[in-house]
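REQUEST FORM: STRUCTURE PREDICTION
Request ID: SP-0412
Submitted by: Lab K.M.
Chain count: 1
Length (residues): 173
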Amino acid sequence: MGKPGIRIGLSVLALAAAGCGHSADDPSPTATTTRAPAPVSEELFVGECGSVTDEQVVDITGVPGLAAVSRNGIRCRFEASDSGAYAMFTWYRGSPIARERTVAGRIGREIRAFDIDGHPGFSARADDYSCEVGVESGDGFIHWSVNYVYATPTREICDIVGDLARAVVANAK
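STATUS: Completed
RESULT:
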């Protein structure tokens, strides 16, 4: 017989708690809601590999033999078997760019901010042979990462990766 008493007690407690809210005349909210911040930039609509061709990747990076080893609408990876160099494109939809930038900074990368045609972004340089670039796209971002491994960049590494990001923005539909 103890069970009906517990149920009645819980029901009374629930009703009492429900009555503790604010009245319609009281402007203060009963709960706060958290909303994602509105996107800062217009969303880029890109095709496979960020709408960047294999030829553009080779021309921009200057790595002979760089070829796509995987490709789809979200991620593409290009590798050069003789030098170990690689370039990778990723489209992060619905993911905040600030989180990626923070992680790159926390692991000791040199962070720089920039803007490509109204799309804010950042570069994160690890050393003379490795850099990543993120560019805001609506509520997400596009991301390029390049590592030369045993190859030598033809110019400053983050400039190269930034040019890959610029190609995505230029080719976006």
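NOTES: Residues 2-36 have pLDDT under 50 and may be disordered.
Reviewed by: T.R.
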